[in-house]
Each structure stands twice: as structure tokens, then as C-alpha cells.
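Data deposition worksheet. Section B asks for the primary sequence of the deposited chain exactly as it was used as input, without tags or linkers unless they were present during the calculation. Section C holds the resulting structure in C-alpha cell form. Section D is free text for depositor observations; keep each observation to a single sentence. Incomplete worksheets are returned to the depositor.
Section A, Depositor: J.P.
Section B:
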Amino acid sequence: MLVLLGFILVFHLATAALLFIATINNAWWRNDLLSTDIWMTCFSNGSHCVNEFVEYYGDCIKAIQATMCLSVIFCCISFIVFVVQLFRLQKGQRFYIAGTLQLLSSLCVMIAASIYTNQQETFHTTFTLNSGNYGYSYILAWIAFAFTLISGVMYIVLRKRK
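Section C:
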């Protein structure tokens, strides 16, 4: 049981790291000249970053920013709740609160990545952004969605044993 709990803790920390990287790092869309994320656009040398392009996207980008931030918050709170429940729950009870928070985090990541995917043409038709491809932060967001979903289901199924 101790090995299983160790695996779950490491899996949750890896998921949180993926969410942080996907939210903060500047690589949701890339081409030869610049890279952009949900916060700003940086030119290829990385020395000059502007947020005018991102502000041009309107309310969709604000929704993506909000849901990615919420996913990180839910994931961190879920980890804290899991550790608290680990010591406070009676034997045989399930980790429903931690699982529910992790599933909410998964839902937020899915919403953000889906909006970004749907609005990709709108976002990248300006200037030189139309030729390029998705960056690794976008891919990490989808991987984080799968990890948070798996983690949430694991918490709900997991029972506290001796």
C-alpha cells in the first residue's frame, strides 16, 4: 500500500508540474519568427515579448487563461486535500474530495485546450502567425488533461487501507 501511495503522490506532482509548464511556458504556437502562448508573444531571439497580439484575441484568450489558472489551483488544492485526507480519513473510506477537485482540474484543462484548438485559426491569422504549428506547451496541456482525469478517477476509486 505504501508503494501505491508513493506512486500516486509522484503521479500527482508530475501532473501539477505539467500544468504549471503548460500554463506558464511560451510555446503554445510556434513558427520560425516567433512563439506565442496564452499570455504573450515573443520573437525568435526571446529578447522582445509583447502582449498586443494576445490582447487582440479578445475574450476567448481570457477564458483560456482563466481556466488554465483554475486547473492549476484545483490541482494544488487537490494535492493538499489528498495529503490531509490520508491522515484524517477512517479506514475503508474513499478520497472523494481530492478526486472531485482533480476531476474539476481535468475539466478546466479540457475546456482551455478545446477553446484554443477551436479558435486556432482566429488566433493565428494575424501577422506572421498563420504559418506554424502547435508547440510543446499545447501538447503538455492535453497530456495534463489525461493525467488529471486518470488521477481523479484513481482518487475516487482508492480506498484507505492499513
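Section D:
The chain has six helices and five strands.
Helices lie at 2-24, 52-56, 59-88, 96-118, 120-124, 136-157.
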